[in-house]
Design goal:
The chain has helices spanning 20-32, 49-53, 60-86, 99-125, 162-170; strands at residues 10-17, 38-41, 149-154, 176-181. It is α+β, with helices and mostly antiparallel strands. The chain has 2 domains: 10-54 and 131-152 and 170-181, no CATH class; 60-125, no CATH class. A 4-stranded antiparallel sheet has the order 2-3-1-4, with helices on one face. It is elongated.
């Protein structure tokens, strides 16, 4: 029987599975048990894993659109300010400010703002950069890039209880369950 350790700080539990179907069923079981701080690790994308994990759509597309729209407005406002208001020059009878002449800069600033938001927003929303995770210390976890599938439940999850979580993972018929301890 499993006995909780008291001396070291537990980071969570890692269950190992042999097939994508097994980890998919385990993910559904963990999701239905109301866990929120857990993840799966697979050597290739598993069709249906997002639904099995209950992953909601990300807010990133909205952030990228808002940043692109802000870039567009700022570029147009900046060019209007510089050309029509701050330093107006009448050249060959052309208007002080017109949309067609300012489209290239507007397009570039829009794309720049959207791209930077996409990159840094993705990093921020994913909690990156995280250079080390305690599961990386596990010798069995090295097989995640070839032929094994893992499900890790983090101990910071509000539902996490050492004994109940261990029993839940045991009920999913894994090849093994490993106690992941916090790195010093």
């Amino acid at each position: 029987m499993f006995e909780p350790h008291g001396a070291t700080r537990i980071q969570g539990f890692m269950a190992e599975y042999a097939s994508p179907e097994e980890v998919l069923r385990a993910a559904q079981t963990v999701r239905d048990s109301r866990y929120t701080r857990w993840d799966t690790f697979t050597p290739f994308p598993v069709h249906g894993m997002d639904e099995a994990m209950g992953i909601k759509p990300t807010v990133l597309p909205r952030l990228v659109f808002a940043a692109g729209a802000l870039g567009c407005v700022l570029a147009l406002a900046m060019q209007w300010w510089m050309n029509a208001h701050d330093y107006p020059l009448v050249i060959s009878g052309k208007p002080l400010w017109s949309i067609p002449a300012n489209i290239p800069v507007t397009f570039e600033v829009t794309v720049l703002m959207a791209a930077l938001t996409a990159v840094f927003g993705m990093l921020w929303l994913n909690g990156l950069p995280r250079l080390h995770h305690p599961v990386f210390s596990s010798s069995s976890f090295r097989r995640v890039t070839t032929d094994r599938f893992f499900l890790v439940i983090d101990s910071v999850d509000p539902v996490f209880d050492e004994i109940k979580t261990y029993r839940l993972l045991s009920s999913t018929d894994p090849l093994g369950i490993e106690r992941v301890e916090e790195s010093p």
